[in-house]
Amino acid sequence: MKSFSRLFLSSLLLASSAMALTAKVESPKLAKGTSIGKYAKPGAPVDIRYTTEYVEAGEMSTINMILITGVSSGTMDVEVHLDKKLHTQREVTNSLHIALNSKNNEYPLSSMQVFADEDGIYYVKLIVNLKGKGFRAFAVPIYVGHEENQKKKKSQQKTKSGKNISIMPAKESIY
Q1: Residues whose CB is less than 8 angstroms from the CB of residue 51 and which lie 6 or more positions away in sequence, other chains included
Q2: How many CB atoms lie under 10 A from the CB of residue 143?
Q3: Which domains does the chain have, with CATH numbers?
Q4: Which terminus of the chain has a lower count of CB atoms within 10 Å, N or C?
């Protein structure tokens, strides 16, 4: 009986470790975006390319951002601001100073990890200042939770005839 229980336990441990080795690790679902080729208002000649991860509430989302510019001299100052409900485990550097050179036109920012406690769409905002060239603002979305909880009400909608209308909360008073 003792040898049977040992044999049973060892086969059970062997089977569970084999299952752990063959389990597929799901790769995270990524959100990718860029401002390249999009309409740009007058301002600093800077574009952005980014990737973020779709995560559940309380999980870390890794953000990779690359700033792209054709300017080959001077400095690029970047201010980073997180939405109030976004948190990090490490301190985030709010101000970055990047020396531009003629060898590079892509300047990767260090990877950042953020999380939120509630479902929704949050933003990491960047304000880029190229000395003598102007400013540019970017917002990188962070998707937390399920899609139906992320959607926000659109304040602007179209009528059946195609005209834009703004939806705003209102209270009616009758005198």
Answers
A1: 30, 31, 32, 33, 63, 64
A2: 19
A3: 30-148 (2.60.40.10)
A4: C
pTM equals: 0.67
The structure tokens listed for 93 are: 């550097």
pLDDT-derived band at 22 (thresholds 50, 70, 90) equals very low
Q: What is the 3-state secondary structure (H, E, C) of the chain?
A: CHHHHHHHHHHHHHHHHHHHHHCCCCCCCEEEEECCCCCCCCCCCEEEEEEEECECCCCCEEEEEEEEECCCCCEEEEEEEECCCEECCCCCCCEEEEECCCCCCEEEEEEEEEEECCCEEEEEEEEEEECCCEEEEEEEEEEECCHHHHCCCCCEEECCCCCEEECCCCCCCCC
